[in-house]
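pasting for ref
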Amino acid sequence: MRVWLLMFLIFNTSVFAKTIKVAAIDWCPQICPKQTEKGYVIDLVEEIYRNSDYQLKIDYFPWSRAIKYVLAGKYHALLAPAKAEAPQLRYPNTAVGQQEMCFFTTADNQWQYRGVDSLNKMQIGIAIDTSIEELNQYVSNHTEQFVFQPYHERYIKQSAQMLSKKRIDAFLFTKNSTRYELKQANMWHDYKLAGCVSRTEIFMAFTPATKNQHSIDAMMQTFDTRAAQLNSQRLIQQLLTKYNLQ
């Protein structure tokens, strides 16, 4: 009986693991809930917490709702914001990747982003609660030039269709995701990248809700300790190669 119990404990440690509830978005190729390959961010985070005291439970929501759930403490962590997108959250030392926000237009449009002066008289699609880095202040000061939409799994296709119908002149979103989504839909030939703003790091960010902050501290410490042990930057580069993003 004791031998059986010992073997049960060894082979079923996951039963006793603490659960990290993660709110995430459909954001392929970073996060791919509907694909066989889960996305490089999910692969990285799962590897960081593998064989730890934690197991991940990931649920998927529209972006703004995911942020609100983590801010309220309904979920422990969020994948995968830039710091400017959810500044109230708690951020570990280690990023899980980078995002590059870019402009996209129809393939026959000769316009190219060359700084804020090139945005004059443009109508631009943009996702709510996303950070455009050096353009954040411009967006705030020129809201009449921007068409704000919630980010969900249909955002990219809907924005591309708005371009084709000439309801907007360009839209903004992350480079990898936009090209991936439009190529998957066999639509990329009708559109093109028209310039990018700066890159920024993205994170697994944690709730600031005051309840059980010692537990959140432990989750974050495990994240950074394991990320350092695994050499997360090298692992990210390997995963980017796996997903043909190099």
